[in-house]
Design a protein that fits this description.
Two copies of one chain form a homodimer. Chain A is of the alpha+beta class and about 325 residues long. Helices cover about 35% and strands about 25% of the residues of chain A. At the A-B interface, α1, α2, β3, β4 and α4 of A face α1, α2, β3, β4 and α4 of B.
């Protein structure tokens, strides 16, 4: 059987079952959240990894190598942000074809270094190997403090409870707009520049994750697969349903300008915005907003259920989940 | 310019220079040792990563997928052992072509799980991506205790001092013999089985690294590139020369049986034995031997110098460094 028949999530479940049960008492969060977490002596260590393969996760020739370097690190930082942590140390693995150009790798590292500097990340090691195709894999370690009661302070996927508010940071859909522009525009259109920047230079929300933790929020995820699908991951992990109020979803202004008709669907289902979904009582969300110093948009609420996201229109009627113009494209990052 | 013109070590130096200077005061060991190390609250965290690409680092069709899974984790464990640490948590990234077979991935994970169980490693997360070629990248975190004086207890590459003894664990060359058998034998020869096992199922020396730390040894490296080359890494990092007494290098008995004429050269220059080189005063080496409960072979000594390994024959005459029949093969792991 080909692995493509199993699908990514089927394969993950199969491989998880093949591993010995986690026997290390320090483990707090294993396979299936944004990052792994384990107790260290005075706190909690986080670790995550993410890969970008040429031709699968980015379009060589259509994007700048410096942007690939930025994004390769940024998507990992977002996983740490999604746990409420602070990124610290990275290991960088390069798979390089023999004809890879030094100038391209220099540009890759310039972008990676800029992202590292912006987020206070230290590249502490890595590996360079020959391969038939370019790929960059980054493993990123970070940490969170323990809460006052000695429990680890983490934004987990399994912490949503009926009655909680669902909030998002920032505005959504810009990254999907950028990917669409990269694919459809014969030449870069000036009005696409902001969207392409959003797609290739995401700004992970470490600030919002930390503010949420400080405010007592304990459930969250980053938006990598798209709002609807990522909210679905939380609902599955928590054993609840969600009402998603589509008209409340904040739309990226550049997306609205460029793709007005499709903007609402792209904001609900487009991936790779790397904003955060935060789920907690309304009071905790307001406290997080105060700690962050900028507004969070409440876009729905958690209800009793078993893992379903109900998308509601302006009249409160359930509508089919927006299809997301690119939702199941091969290689969509998770 | 193609990256192949720069070479791996030239590229690493170039990329290191492109990164912002390490600003995190917790960092103890950055780019250029077996693993990165940083202070955690009560000790020291270690992290390393290593990749195996199909067709570059192993020969699909000639080796068992379960062995690939074992080895992918084992080579990372060896990096932690080479710092004197204990492995703990792994992140596993799979790059999978769409026609990858589920049965092969099952076998891969069976081998990986066996290695994880043997060494007490917990797989805590990872990533699965589509790619045109199979590759497995593992990031492994571990830890070491702090020494009694509060300093981090690590086996570093830069700790060799003139007068120190050079010791190795185990017997060498078996892995190079296994690789040679895989390449040269039309069908698996029974007398090659032990060598192929040595090549595909290395047994990293966590025991020896820990014993060395307990005995006060503070310089070491694992044998991945080959004894001569890895000793050269230590000499470069420490600013010393080494005398390597070739007749003292312990030879793998199966290697001697299969390739008697080439065995000494293969033991000196063949890679991927994943034994340890330990460098310390003779007394500390003897103490490590006692702590380990099995003998270490003293194969040379550190002298004043600037990074050169002098290979000496039985009469103490300097001889050309054994060429190593496969020393610069593309994709040789470092």
């Amino acid at each position: 059987m080909d692995v493509s028949e199993l699908g990514e999530f089927g394969l993950i479940e199969r491989l998880r079952a093949a591993l010995p049960p986690a026997s290390d008492a320090r483990l707090l969060v294993g396979i299936g959240d944004d990052a792994a977490a384990w107790r260290s002596d005075g706190g909690c260590t986080l670790a995550t990894t993410d890969t970008m393969v040429a031709g699968i996760h980015f379009l060589p020739g259509r994007v700048a190598w410096s942007d690939v370097g930025w994004k390769a690190l940024a998507v990992n930082i977002s996983d740490i942000a999604a746990m409420g942590g602070t990124p610290a140390f990275a290991l960088v693995t390069l798979c390089l074809p023999p004809d890879a150009q030094v100038a391209d790798i220099d540009a890759l590292y310039a972008g990676l270094a800029a992202c590292a500097q912006a987020y206070g990340v230290t590249v502490a090691g890595g590996d360079i190997v020959a391969a038939p195709v370019f790929a960059i894999t980054i493993a990123l370690m970070g940490d969170t403090a323990m809460a006052a009661d000695g429990s680890p302070a983490l934004l987990r996927r399994d912490g949503a409870r009926a009655g909680d508010a669902i909030a998002v940071t920032g505005a959504l859909g810009g990254s999907a707009g950028g990917l669409r522009a990269l694919r459809e525009d014969a030449a870069p259109a000036p009005e696409s520049a902001a969207l392409i920047e959003r797609h290739m230079r995401p700004r992970p929300r470490v600030d919002a994750g930390r503010a949420a933790i400080a405010a007592g929020v304990r459930c969250g995820i980053d938006i990598s697969d798209g709002l609807v699908q990522d909210l679905g991951h939380v609902c599955n992990a928590s054993g609840v349903d969600a009402e998603l109020w589509l008209p409340r979803v904040p739309l990226d202004p550049a997306l609205v300008a460029r793709y007005p008709a499709d903007a609402p669907a792209m904001a609900a289902s487009g991936g790779e915005d790397y904003e955060l979904i935060l789920i907690a009582t309304e009071d905790a969300i307001r406290a997080a907003e105060a700690a962050l110093g900028s507004p969070l948009a409440v876009v729905g609420r958690i209800i009793e259920g078993a893992g379903v996201v109900h998308a509601l229109d302006e009249q409160g009627r359930e509508v089919p989940v927006p299809a997301g113009w690119d939702h199941l494209a091969p290689g969509r990052r998770s």
